[in-house]
């Protein structure tokens, strides 16, 4: 039997395990069940791939998405690992061929969807496999899909307890990057993992820079961000609605960006084509609803942007976790406004879910709002939500890099709350601000609100500043939107009344000014350099990327399956000109050394020669 370290080095090209990987691998190799919580990009796949190569039999991996299976199998094939998948994308003849390979013991790993695994015919195949070549383990990827409170609930996952009942001697490993304490408890219960060892790694992604801004002109703010920091990078932009996705993608295209839309309303052919382009080409931007993303393994996504609020901290954490999977610097950038808050709460309250489910969803949304409005370290806030301590002062978020100013807003808050009360607790923020600013609009006249005591008392702030005050009061729980009154604001007495009575002060965050002059104009030239990673030799970096793209196109696979950016960066630093030197680079295993070593060494030699 090979050692785990030997497999790690010879197959995957790494000298050392990261974090808890080694403990997890040894536990599963020994036959133990495991629940693994590990952030995206931390190497969860190795935790079941290496035991599958060491233990007798084939590793059976339950995966929720076809795209994820294809990507994983292509990556393993590059390493000369015998892997395949069974899903609805295969024709009958190909599926039969894969099944024959499986039963003959010719595969190291097989990826299947939960629906196929539960098929009686496939369960019979597993019975035969268990009696013959053997089953090394069952890996249940994206295990949070089992939770009814989660954002990616898949009812088929509930049936996976059959694995434990039918194959009690086969170890199971359930893996997820996103699970708060209640979700974790539900995974344990639903998958019968009470006796499994739980490996909980830090949820921190220190390479991601988190930034949250007040939404003022979302598209122009977005382009300013892209032009300043990601002029040639691949990234994902999330929008709440399909219409917003298409509008934003078209707007970016019109301004010279390589952007594509993705949402459930597009045909399967368009979605597949756009996803394929995103995975296989450099510098492509995907504008999407949350229908896009789960199972996307592209490691060099340099940014994830949100033009609207996500629905929960779990959703936000998982979506932003699609950036920087290679461990290199990446951005998580978001703009939001009070309109987002009202829209999401309306979606929750008008939905068909039970009251218990709605209550949980409201709590999750409130937690995300608190995160947005917080003046504390963003990394600390995320980890606190998942029950993990963080010392703060991360040096890689907006609040730590540019500490937020606060101001004593007690007097202004009293005016805002009083205006809500005096106008009957049934109007939205636009009307309330009109009253505070003393604007005699038709609506103000219709309801005689030019005669209330709060009319015109708020002239010390402008409309944008009052918007900020109301948004923070909603986020802080002083006000809530009454969905039955189309988003009208009303007081939360237990929190608002002490402020109105002068018993409690309120400090709010000052909003940073936004300058339209900073926004790049259409047609502005894009920088060729990478603004995030300090590349010592730009010529060699570009030459290595070009060779990677050429080899990927020849094989019809994404470039990152040849080598990750982190591996190319190591080539730039060490400039290997012999196969022995090349073999010492992280991510270069035996198969890739033999397949690609000479190609990349020639690029290094030619570039060094041309640079003189």
Automatic annotation (TrEMBL):
InterPro entries: DEAD/DEAH_box_helicase_dom, DNA_helicase_ATP-dep_RecQ, DNA_helicase_ATP-dep_RecQ_bac, Helicase_ATP-bd, Helicase_C-like, HRDC-like_sf, HRDC_dom, HRDC_dom_sf. One of its GO terms (biological process) is SOS response. It catalyses: Couples ATP hydrolysis with the unwinding of duplex DNA by translocating in the 3'-5' direction. Its EC number is 5.6.2.4. One of its GO terms (molecular function) is ATP binding. Residues 221-366 form the Helicase C-terminal domain. Transmembrane segments: none annotated. Its cofactor is Zn(2+); Mg(2+). Signal peptide: none annotated. It comes from the Bacteria. GO terms for cellular component: bacterial nucleoid; cytoplasm; replisome. Residues 25-197 form the Helicase ATP-binding domain. The keyword Magnesium does not apply. Residues 534-612 form the HRDC domain. The keyword Transferase does not apply. Belongs to the helicase family. RecQ subfamily. NCBIfam families: recQ (TIGR01389), recQ_fam (TIGR00614). This is DNA helicase RecQ. It comes from Polynucleobacter asymbioticus (strain DSM 18221 / CIP 109841 / QLW-P1DMWA-1).
């Amino acid at each position: 039997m090979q050692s785990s370290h030997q497999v790690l080095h010879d197959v995957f090209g790494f000298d050392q395990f990261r974090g808890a990987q080694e403990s997890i691998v040894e536990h599963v190799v020994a036959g133990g069940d495991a629940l693994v919580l590990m952030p995206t990009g931390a190497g969860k796949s190795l935790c079941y791939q290496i035991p599958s190569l060491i233990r007798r039999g084939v590793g059976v991996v339950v995966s929720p998405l076809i795209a994820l299976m294809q990507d994983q199998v292509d990556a393993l094939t590059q390493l000369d690992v015998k892997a395949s998948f069974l899903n609805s994308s295969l024709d009958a003849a190909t599926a039969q061929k894969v099944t024959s390979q499986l039963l003959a013991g010719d595969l190291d790993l097989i990826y299947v969807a939960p629906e196929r695994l539960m098929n009686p015919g496939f369960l019979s195949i597993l019975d035969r496999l268990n009696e013959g070549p053997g089953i090394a383990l069952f890996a249940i990827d994206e295990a949070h899909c089992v939770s009814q409170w989660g954002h990616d609930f898949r009812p088929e996952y509930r049936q996976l307890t059959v694995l434990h009942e039918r194959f009690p001697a086969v170890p199971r490993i359930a893996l997820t990057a996103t699970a708060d304490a209640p979700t974790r408890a539900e995974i344990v219960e639903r998958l019968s993992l009470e006796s499994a060892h739980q490996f909980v790694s830090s949820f921190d992604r220190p390479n991601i820079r988190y930034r949250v801004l007040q939404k003022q002109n979302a598209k122009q703010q977005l382009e300013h961000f892209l032009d300043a920091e990601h002029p040639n990078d691949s990234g994902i932009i999330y929008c709440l609605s399909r219409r917003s996705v298409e509008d934003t993608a078209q707007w970016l295209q019109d301004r010279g960006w390589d952007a594509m839309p993705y949402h459930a309303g597009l045909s399967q052919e368009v979605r597949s084509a756009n996803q394929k382009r995103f995975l296989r080409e450099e510098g492509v931007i995907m504008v999407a609803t949350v229908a896009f993303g789960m199972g996307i393994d592209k490691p060099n996504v340099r940014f994830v942007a949100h033009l609207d609020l996500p629905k929960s901290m779990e959703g936000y954490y998982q979506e932003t976790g699609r950036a920087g999977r290679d461990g290199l610097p990446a951005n998580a950038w978001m703009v939001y406004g009070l309109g987002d808050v009202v829209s999401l709460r309306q979606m929750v309250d008008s939905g068909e879910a039970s009251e218990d489910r709605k209550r949980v969803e409201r709590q999750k949304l409130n937690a995300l709002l608190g995160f947005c409005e917080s003046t504390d370290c963003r990394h600390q806030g995320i980890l606190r939500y998942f029950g993990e301590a963080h010392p703060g002062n991360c040096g890689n978020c907006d609040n730590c890099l540019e500490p937020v100013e606060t101001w004593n807003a007690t007097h202004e808050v009293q005016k805002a709350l009083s205006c809500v009360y005096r106008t009957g607790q049934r109007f939205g923020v636009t009307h309330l601000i009109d009253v505070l600013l003393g604007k005699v609009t038709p609506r103000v006249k219709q309801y005689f609100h030019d005669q209330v005591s709060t009319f015109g008392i708020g002239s010390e702030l402008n409309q944008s500043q009052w918007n900020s005050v109301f948004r923070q009061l909603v986020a802080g729980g002083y006000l809530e939107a009454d969905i039955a009154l189309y988003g009208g604001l009303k007081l939360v007495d237990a929190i608002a009344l002490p402020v109105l009575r002068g018993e409690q002060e309120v400090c709010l965050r000052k909003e940073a000014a936004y300058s339209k002059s900073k926004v790049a104009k259409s047609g502005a030239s894009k920088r060729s350099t990478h603004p995030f990673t300090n590349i010592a030799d730009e010529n060699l970096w570009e030459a290595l990327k070009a060779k990677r793209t050429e080899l990927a196109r020849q094989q019809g696979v994404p470039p990152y399956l040849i080598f990750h950016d982190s591996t190319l960066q190591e080539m730039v630093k060490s400039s290997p000109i012999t196969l022995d030197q090349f073999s010492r680079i992280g991510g270069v295993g035996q198969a890739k050394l033999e397949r690609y070593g000479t190609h990349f060494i020639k690029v290094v030699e030619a570039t060094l020669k041309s640079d003189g």
